[in-house]
Amino acid sequence: MIPDSHKDLLDRPLFAHLATIGRDGTPNVNPVWTIWDGEYLRFTTTTDRRKYRNVVENPHVAVSINDPERPYRYVEIRGVVERVDTDPSGDFFDVLANRYGLDYEPPVGDAERRVVIVMKPTRTTQQ
Description:
Keywords: Oxidoreductase. By secondary structure, the chain is of the alpha+beta class. It is built from three helices and seven strands. It has helices at about 5-10, 50-55, 90-100, and strands at about 15-20, 25-30, 35, 40-45, 60-65, 70-85, 115-125.
């Protein structure tokens, strides 16, 4: 699904921009940490955030990742959120923080609301 010419954008710890659709049909875009396992993209959030509510109501999402050295080089991935896994210990947040080279703790009190959004790509475009 992801072309070999752009897999590096998923292998590197680059910020992705996750687009979701709100109840009223308007788009919502947020920068997110992500990890690609060759089949799914995974993100983390908490259940009190708009992106969580949006994907629960409408699982169709898109992600854009651009190359910081060549800003017009990008991959856009459209897909469907196949599931939302609970992560009350915040373990996945730690995985992503380590991937992005940050010694960063989740905000106090949000671990019990933490979830992992699991997206299955269905289409890509790239430049």
